[in-house]
Amino acid sequence: MIAEEKNNQAGSVDSNGVIVLKNLTKKFGKKLVLDNISLSIEKGKTTVIIGPSGCGKTVLLKHLIVLLRPTSGNVYLDQRRIDNLNEDELNQVRTRYGFLFQGGALFDSISVFENIIFPITQHYKITNWEEIDALVKNKLTMVGLDGFQKFYPAKLSGGEKKRVALARAIALNPELILYDEPTTGLDPIRSDVINELILKLQRELGVTSIAVTHDMTSAYKIADRIVMLHKGKILADGDADYIRNHPHPIVQQFIHGQIDDEDLLSLQSNETTSPSQFVSQNSKN
Amino acid sequence: MMVTNAINGLDNLGQFARFVFRSIAASVESCRKSATYPLIWTQMNIIGVHSVPIVMVTGAFVGMILAIQAYDQLAAFGAEEHLGVLINISVVKELGPVLAAVMLAGRIGGALTAELGTMKVTEQIDAIKSMGTDPVKYLVAPRVLACLLLAPFLIIFADLLGIIGGYFVSVIHFGINSRAYWTFSALGVELWDVAIGVIKGFFFGAAIAVISCYKGFTCKEGAHGVGQACTEAFVASFISILALDFALAVFFKAIYNTLWPVKSLI
After folding, report:
1. Measured between CB atoms, which of A94, A103, A125 is closest to B130?
2. Is residue B112 left, alpha or beta, with left meaning phi > 0 and alpha meaning psi from -120 to 50?
3. What residues 131-150 of chain B have any CB closer than 8 A to a CB of chain A?
4. Cβ(A21)–Cβ(A63) below 8 Å
5. Residue A42 class from Cβ within 10 Å (0-12 exposed, 13-18 middle, 19+ buried)?
6. Could A62 and B126 be called an inter-chain contact, meaning their C-beta atoms sit closer than 8 Å?
7. B45-103, pLDDT tens digit by residue?
C-alpha cells in the first residue's frame, strides 16, 4: 500500500495557490489514470512533476489548462473554477498560459516566424509589423535561435523544435508556463540549455512554471518543489533535498533509476530465444 | 454487449451532432470576420482549384459512357436523336453531382482527415487550444466553407464536361444530327434540373467537409489510427452523399410535382 503525502488528502490542499486541483480523478474508459489528486501550485515558483512513464504526469499537466476535463474533482485558477467553463470562456483563460508540448507541436505547414506569431494573430490585430519582427527576434534570441525565422519545422532538429516551441509558448508573455518533458530526447548539453531557459524565464518574466519530466538532473536543477506521481497518486511532495532523502523505496528507486526486484527476476527467468531457434522449433511441429 | 454497443453508438452520434453544430456556428462566425477570409481563400485554392481537372475528367467520362450505353436502346426504337435528353438530364441532375462529389470525397475528404488526424496525433490541435484558439473555428470552419461554396462550381464543371463528352460520342462517333441532338436536349432539360444538381453540391460539399474533419479530430493514435480514420471518412462521406441524394431527390420531386405537371422525357 502506497503511503500518500499529506497534501494529497482530500480537503487539506492550500486553496491560495495560483492553480489548485481538488480531488481530481481521471478515467479513460475503465482505466483509472489520476486517483483523487489534490495539489496547489504556488505562484512564481517552479513545480516539477516526476514519475515513471505512464503514471499520469502529462494527463495531470493537461488538466491544469483544461485540455482534458476531469472525471470528477475541480480545477481552480486564481480561486475561480475553470474545469466547468465552456470552450469560449476557456480560450480567454488559456491566454494566461504557455504550453510546451513534448514533441514541440509546431505547425509544420508554416514557418518558424508564423508559428511564433500565431498566438498573437489569434488575439490581436497586427498593425505594426516592425514591432512584430522585433518581438519574434527577441523571443528567438531568448531561445538562441535568432535567424531561424524563415525555416520550416521539418528542417529543424529535435532540440531546435523544442526551443522554437518554447519561443511560441512565451509569445504572449504568459503568467504560467507548462512544460511537458522539456528535455526528453535531447543530448545532455541541449537539455541543460533548456533547463537554463526555464530558469531564465522564471527570473526574467517571473512566471509560474510547472514541468513534467523523468529527467532527475533537470528536475533538481529547475525545481523549487518536486511532486512525485505513482499509479495516479501523489507519492512524495517537497523540495529537491526532501525528495533526495525521501524514505519511500519507490521514490529512491525512481530517483536513482534502479530496476526493482520483480523486473529483475522477470528478466532473469526469460531465456533469450533467437529467431532461428523459433523457426526450427516450429518446423519440427 | 449489445446494450454497450448501442450506448457507444448513441454516444458517437451525439458527439458528431455536437461537432456539426459547432462547425455550423463557427462557419457562420467566420463569414462575419474578415480576418478569417485568408484562411478560407487558402482552403478554396487547395480544395476547389486543385480539384477542377479530376472533376472535369470524371464528368467527361460519365457523359461518354452514358452515350455508349444508351445509344443501342434508343436506336432500336428509332429514337436515337433523343439521346441528348437522356445523357444531359442524367448528367446534370444525378450522375454529374454524385460522381463529382464522390471524387471530392476521395481527393479532399481523405486529405482533410489525414491532415487533421496527423495534427491531432502530433498534439498540434491541443497546441491551438492551449493558445486560446478554438480549433473548430481555425481549422474546420474554413474547410467547411471552402467545400460548401466550391462543390457547386465543381459540379458545374463536371456537368459541362459530361455534356461535351456525351455530345462527342453521340454526334461524332454515332453520327446523330447535331441540331436534333441539341434541340431535343433543350426541350427535355430544364433550368430546374440544372439547379437541382447545383443545389445538391452545397449539401454534398458540407457533408464531405464536416465528416472528414470530424474523423480527423477523433482519429486514434498512430499511423494506423490516421489510416483508419481516412478510410472511415471516405466510407461515411460516400454513404452520406447517396443518402442525401436520395433525400434531396424525393424533396425536389415533391416540389416539382406540386409546381408543374409531370411530363415525359422523350
Report:
1. A94
2. alpha
3. 131-134, 138
4. yes
5. middle
6. yes
7. 988 888 899 999 999 999 999 999 998 888 888 888 888 889 999 999 999 999 999 99
